[in-house]
Amino acid sequence: MPAGYYLYDFVLYYKINAKAVFAIKAATSFCFVVLGFYAREKSGDAAGNYPALVISGLLAGLLGDIVLGIRRIDAKRKTTYFIFGSALFFVGHIFYAAAFLTFSASKPYLYLLTGIVMAALIIITTNLSGVKCGKLKFLNYVYVLPLSFLIAVTGLNIIHNFTRINTILFAGAVSFALSDILLYFIYFAGIGEKNIQKIKAVNIAAYYLAQTLFAVSIYYI
């Protein structure tokens, strides 16, 4: 997809009303799915189940973006939309993890242990930050698990086998983690509007980079 389209979305995000933002973000997320299908078409028949798993993750992201976008429009039910949107991204992470395990270069228990340690570190760090999530605290803890597992899988893969595809996936996983962690502070930290604008800019850029890398990875398998 043209980089200019993402830049267009990025620049206008704070300049227009919530409904227009919703439409642009949904269209951009749809572009990630289209990019995934395009990469699948170019990758050939030797790709196995990997493209289908990644595209399923991209579709879950598209639906998650739609639900979270509605949250901005229907503020009265924002908590409900947040829960369902997070659940969709949770499912997307599961699809991604299954796809990335295709390149497994280590023993399964090492992925699991590394993921648990990373999840614990993220949870401890966010708790020490003093951010209050209220009733959504345990939901956030659950969400951290597949996200940490993505980093564990791609990180161990790149350590054991430094290839282009593993590098792309590790960069995508780290970008996704950065995006989600920043989103956590955007939703729950209660920081000033000026700082939120800056954090949102990095959050969007990291998310777009992650989804683009995951979609493009299909082409390079």
List keywords for this structure.
221 residues; mainly alpha; Rhopdopsin 7-helix transmembrane proteins; disordered N terminus
Describe this structure in words.
The protein is mostly helical and 221 residues long. The protein has a single domain (3-220), classed as Rhopdopsin 7-helix transmembrane proteins (Up-down Bundle), CATH 1.20.1070. The protein is built from 8 helices and no strands. The longest helix has 26 residues, at 18-43. The chain is globular. Residues 1-12 have low confidence and may be disordered.
Q: How large is the count of helical segments? A: 8
- For the record, the CATH architecture stands as Up-down Bundle
Portion in beta strands? under 5%
Q: In angstroms, what separates the terminal alpha carbons?
A: 19 Å
* H and E order: HHHHHHHH
Query: Helix amount, in percent?
Result: over 70%
Largest sheet: none
The total strand number stands at 0
Query: In terms of structural class, how would the helical and strand content be classed?
Result: mainly alpha
CATH topology label: Rhopdopsin 7-helix transmembrane proteins
Number of domain units: 1
Approximate shape: globular
Radius of gyration: 17 Å
**Integer average pLDDT:** 83
Using the coordinates above, name the CATH class: Mainly Alpha
Low-confidence stretches: 1-12
